[in-house]
């Protein structure tokens, strides 16, 4: 699984209904592009949104799907609408995720933390986060995939790292919240992150698939 997307704030003069329009356009892209599983689009209620109160996330089979996704004729139209109507946008682009055997879901919930790592903390901290999150995938059927590592889009500075958790809706997210290592993950993340930006898509929202 590969995750690609953006968190953004709407400009004060943004067109009405712009988020719904983008969702509809990307819905066409999803349905007509092999390997694109879901495209959640909608409000971002994360406490770490920092003014980026909307988001788009594309869940695809792997990174090879990114080029056909971008090549779809509706994708540039959606991108142009976003560029004309948003501010404070930040990109998200993971590497390959650690996934469960089954990643089927009708409505995924995607929880993302983008951040600049604290340079006083060694890489072993994020390695421990990764270990605990992989255990959550193995232990919790509702946790579909996780990623800890470089945020590889050129639109990310200074938030060069990200932690991504994909669950089977709210139920899968609650299952993750109850995992025995959840408190330790939160403790480690508090120690390592600077300038965090959060994105939480999957609750009451518009979706393109």
TrEMBL record:
**Source superkingdom:** Bacteria
Can you say what this protein is called?
Answer: Dabb family protein
Q: Which organism is it from?
A: Janibacter limosus
Q: What is the lineage of its organism?
A: Bacteria, Bacillati, Actinomycetota, Actinomycetes, Micrococcales
């Amino acid at each position: 699984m590969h995750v690609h997307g953006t968190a953004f704030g709407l400009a004060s003069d943004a067109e009405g209904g712009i988020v719904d329009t983008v969702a509809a356009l990307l819905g066409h892209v999803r349905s007509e592009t092999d390997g694109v599983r879901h495209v959640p689009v909608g409000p971002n209620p994360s406490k770490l949104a920092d003014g980026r109160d909307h988001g788009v996330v594309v869940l695809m089979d792997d990174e090879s799907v990114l080029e056909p996704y971008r090549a779809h004729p509706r994708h540039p139209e959606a991108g142009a609408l976003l560029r004309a109507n948003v501010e404070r946008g930040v990109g998200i682009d993971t590497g390959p995720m650690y996934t469960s055997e089954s990643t089927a879901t009708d409505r995924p919930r995607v929880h993302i933390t983008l951040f600049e790592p604290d340079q006083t903390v060694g890489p072993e901290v994020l390695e421990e986060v990764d270990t605990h999150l992989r255990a959550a995938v193995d232990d919790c059927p509702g946790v579909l995939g996780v990623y800890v590592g470089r945020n590889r889009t050129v639109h990310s500075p200074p938030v060069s790292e990200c932690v991504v958790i994909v669950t089977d809706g709210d139920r899968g997210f609650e299952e993750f919240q109850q995992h025995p290592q959840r408190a330790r993950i939160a403790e480690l993340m508090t120690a390592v992150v600077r300038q965090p930006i959060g994105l939480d898509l999957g609750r009451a929202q518009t979706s393109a698939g």
